[in-house]
Design brief:
With 617 residues, the chain is α/β, with parallel strands linked by helices. It is built from 21 helices and 20 strands.
Length: 617
C-alpha cells in the first residue's frame, strides 16, 4: 500500500458548505503560495456552485478566478466539480456546449475533472468524460452515493464498471450528504476496487459526524485518495479536517507525507478570512444526525438556511427537513446533489410554505417527471406525476439527444456583450444573469454584495434593536426598500445603524432627540415591498379575491406569459417566477380576462402583492 493522497477542498466545497460559497478570489490568492507548497494531490478550486456565486453575488469573472489560481498554483493540480451534461448550470446543454466548456476549462487551468450526474445516469456523463480525455486531462468518474431501497452495492459497482468502460482515470465515491457509514464505505470501496482496479477517491461530508471514520475504513479497503478540508472550514456540513487526517495517518503505512505545521499556518490564515463572511455563516457547526433521514447535502444546507432566512421562514426548517425525504420518495429516490437537491429541496419548501403538498409545482419538478434530467432510479409516485404533468409521456432517450447544437446560437445572442469564448460560455450557463453580468462589466459597474462590518455582528444577535427590521419608505413619490442588518455601539445619544437601501449597503447615524417606550411586539416585521426602480416604484395592491394572482414565495419575475385583455382559463400559466434558483410557473386560479399586470421581467416580488389581476367570468 502506497501513501494516501489528499485533495484539499478549502477553496471550493469548504466555503460552499459553511458560508454559502461566498469566499472572494482576493482572499484566496494570498495563501496560494503555501497551499502550492503543501503537496496535495489536488486542490478543488472551481466548479460546483462557485461559477454561479461568482456571477450572481461576488460579481467576479469565474474564468478570471480560474486563470489567477492557475498562475498562483504552478505545482498543484486544480480540481473542478462538473455536473456532466448540466456543466455548471441547472439544465442539460447540447454536446457542442459541453465539449467547448470542458476544453476552455482545461485551457484555463483545470487538471482534474470530477464528473458526476445527479441521477447517476451515466448517459449524461459520457460526452463530458470523452471531452476531458480529448483535452489530455484526468477524468474522474463520480458516483453520487445515496441510500434508498434501490441503491445498494451491486447498483454502485455496476455504475463504476460502466464508468471504467468509458475510460475514466479514477473513481470518486461522492457522499455529498454524509450518509456513508464506516463499514459501508469499506465494503463499497473493496467491491469497486475488485470490479475495476482503478484508483478510488472518497468524498464524505462531516454533517453526521462520520466522515473521519469513513475515510479511515475506505483507506483500509484500498482507497488511494481522500477529500479533506482545512480546519478553518471543516466539519459540520463541510468535511473531515485535513490536519486531523494527516496526524491520524502519520507513521502508518498510509502516511500522507504532508507537513502538519505548514497546514496549521494555512489554517491560521483562513480563520481570519472567515471572520469577514460572518453574515453567511450557518447557525451551528454541530453534528446533525437528521441528515441520515433528510439526506440534504452539505452545500444545500447552508444555502437552504440562507434562503429561508431571506424569506423570514427559518423557523420552518424542521418542517422542510421532514418534507424533503417525502418529496424524494415521490420522485423515485434521486440522489440529492445539484441540481436534484435544489429540485427536491425547493419543492419541499413550497409544500411547507404554501400550505398544501404540490399545491404549486416547480417547472424543474415537471421536467424531472418528464425524463428531461434522465432516468429516475426508482418508481415515481403516479399521483404526483398526474398532478404535475397530466398525461404527458416521459422521454426515454438521453435528454441531450433532443437538443441540437447550441454554441452558434448562443454566440449570436450574446453578440456585443462578449469578448471571448469564455464570455459566451458564461452567458450559456445563465443567460439572464450572465447578460446582466457582462453588461455591468462593460459599463464598469460590477459591485459585489456588501460584506457587513464586524461591529454589526454583535448587533445582529440582538433582535431588540430591530423594530421593525425591514420596511418601505415613500418620500416625494419615490419608494425605497430598507432593511436594517445591524447596529453599532451607541455613543452619547448617537447610534450607527447598518442598513441596505435598495440593496446598497449604507451606514446611518441616528441621533436621539426624544425617546418613547416600545412595548413588546410593537416592532413586528413589516412586509418587504417591491424594490424601487429608477424614477420611483409603483406600489402593488394587496390581494383580496381569487382573481388576484400572487406568488407563494419571494422571488423575481422570469417571464410574463399573458397580456392585458387576454382570456385565460383556471390552471393556465400567467407568470414564471424564480425562487431559490428554481423556476415556478404561477397559474390562474380562475377563468376570466386579464385586466391589469403589475410586474415586468426582472421585478422582485413578495407574497403579499397582486402581480396580475384577472376579472372572473
Amino acid at each position: 500500500m502506497t501513501k494516501v493522497h489528499i485533495s484539499e477542498l478549502v477553496l471550493r466545497d469548504g466555503h460552499q458548505s459553511l458560508i454559502a460559497t461566498r469566499m472572494r478570489t482576493e482572499d484566496m490568492l494570498p495563501i496560494c503560495g503555501k497551499l502550492d507548497r503543501a503537496g496535495f494531490w489536488s486542490l478543488e478550486a472551481w466548479g460546483g456552485a462557485t461559477f454561479d456565486a461568482c456571477v450572481r453575488f461576488l460579481k467576479e469573472d469565474p474564468w478570471a478566478r480560474l486563470k489567477a489560481l492557475r498562475r498562483a498554483l504552478p505545482n498543484t493540480r486544480i480540481n473542478m466539480l462538473l455536473r456532466g451534461q448540466n456543466l455548471l448550470g441547472y439544465r442539460h446543454y447540447a454536446d457542442d456546449v459541453v465539449r467547448a466548456f470542458v476544453q476552455k476549462s482545461a485551457d484555463n487551468g483545470v487538471d482534474v475533472f470530477r464528473v458526476f450526474d445527479a441521477m447517476n445516469d451515466t448517459r449524461n456523463m459520457r460526452v463530458s468524460i470523452e471531452a476531458v480525455k480529448k483535452a489530455g486531462k484526468h477524468a474522474q468518474g463520480a458516483i453520487s452515493y445515496t441510500v434508498s431501497p434501490v441503491h445498494d452495492i451491486p447498483y454502485f459497482v455496476t455504475m463504476a464498471q460502466t464508468l471504467a468502460e468509458m475510460g475514466v482515470d479514477s473513481i470518486a465515491i461522492k457522499d455529498m450528504a454524509g450518509l456513508l457509514t464506516p463499514y459501508a464505505a469499506f465494503d463499497l470501496v473493496r467491491a469497486i476496487k475488485a470490479a475495476t482496479n482503478l484508483p478510488i477517491n472518497t468524498h464524505s461530508h462531516a454533517t453526521a459526524g462520520l466522515s473521519t471514520m469513513v475515510h479511515m475504513k475506505a483507506v483500509e479497503a484500498g482507497a488511494e485518495m481522500i477529500d479533506c478540508c482545512n480546519s478553518a472550514f471543516s466539519e459540520g456540513a463541510s468535511h473531515a479536517t485535513t490536519e486531523s487526517m494527516v496526524a491520524a495517518l502519520q507513521g502508518s503505512a498510509y502516511d500522507t507525507g504532508l507537513d502538519l505545521p505548514l497546514l496549521q499556518e494555512i489554517a491560521a490564515y483562513f480563520r481570519e478570512v472567515r471572520k469577514k463572511y460572518w453574515q453567511f455563516e450557518m447557525d451551528a457547526r454541530m453534528v446533525d444526525t437528521r441528515i441520515l433521514v433528510s439526506q440534504v447535502p452539505g452545500g444545500m444546507i447552508s444555502n437552504l438556511t440562507n434562503q429561508l432566512k431571506e424569506q423570514g421562514a427559518l423557523s420552518r426548517m424542521d418542517d422542510v427537513m421532514l418534507e424533503i425525504p417525502r418529496v424524494r420518495e415521490d420522485l423515485g429516490y434521486p440522489p440529492l446533489v445539484t441540481p436534484t437537491s435544489q429540485i427536491v429541496g425547493t419543492q419541499a419548501v413550497l409544500n411547507v410554505l404554501t400550505g398544501g403538498r404540490y399545491k404549486s409545482v416547480t417547472n424543474e419538478v415537471k421536467n424531472y417527471l418528464l425524463g428531461r434530467y434522465g432516468a429516475a432510479p426508482g418508481k415515481v409516485n403516479e399521483q404526483v406525476r398526474k398532478l404535475a404533468v397530466g398525461n404527458q409521456d416521459a422521454i426515454t432517450c438521453r435528454p441531450a439527444d433532443l437538443i441540437g447544437d447550441e454554441i452558434d446560437r448562443l454566440r449570436t445572442e450574446a453578440e456585443g456583450l462578449t469578448k471571448c469564448d469564455e464570455d459566451v460560455l458564461t452567458y450559456a450557463m445563465f443567460p439572464d444573469l450572465g447578460r446582466t453580468f457582462l453588461q455591468e462589466r462593460a459599463a464598469g459597474r460590477l459591485t459585489p454584495e456588501p460584506l457587513l462590518p464586524p461591529e454589526a455582528r454583535e448587533a445582529a444577535a440582538c433582535p431588540a434593536f430591530f423594530a421593525p427590521s425591514e420596511f418601505n419608505v415613500t418620500l416625494h413619490g419615490e419608494t425605497y426598500h430598507i432593511r436594517i442588518s445591524g447596529t453599532g455601539h451607541a455613543g452619547e445619544n448617537v447610534r450607527p445603524f447598518f442598513v441596505h437601501v435598495d440593496g446598497v449597503s449604507e451606514e446611518v447615524r441616528v441621533e436621539t432627540l426624544d425617546e418613547i417606550e416600545i412595548t413588546p411586539g410593537a416592532g413586528a416585521r413589516a412586509s418587504a415591498g417591491k424594490k424601487a426602480a429608477p424614477g420611483g416604484a409603483k406600489a402593488r395592491p394587496r390581494p383580496t379575491h381569487a382573481g388576484h394572482v400572487t406568488t407563494a414565495m419571494p422571488g423575481s419575475i422570469v417571464d410574463v406569459l399573458v397580456k392585458i385583455g387576454q382570456k385565460v382559463k383556471a390552471g393556465d400559466g400567467v407568470l414564471v417566477i424564480e425562487a431559490m434558483k428554481m423556476e415556478n410557473e404561477i397559474q390562474s386560479a380562475v377563468t376570466g380576462t386579464v385586466v391589469a399586470i403589475h410586474v415586468t421581467k426582472g421585478d422582485v416580488v413578495t407574497p403579499d402583492q397582486v402581480l396580475v389581476e384577472i376579472q372572473p367570468e
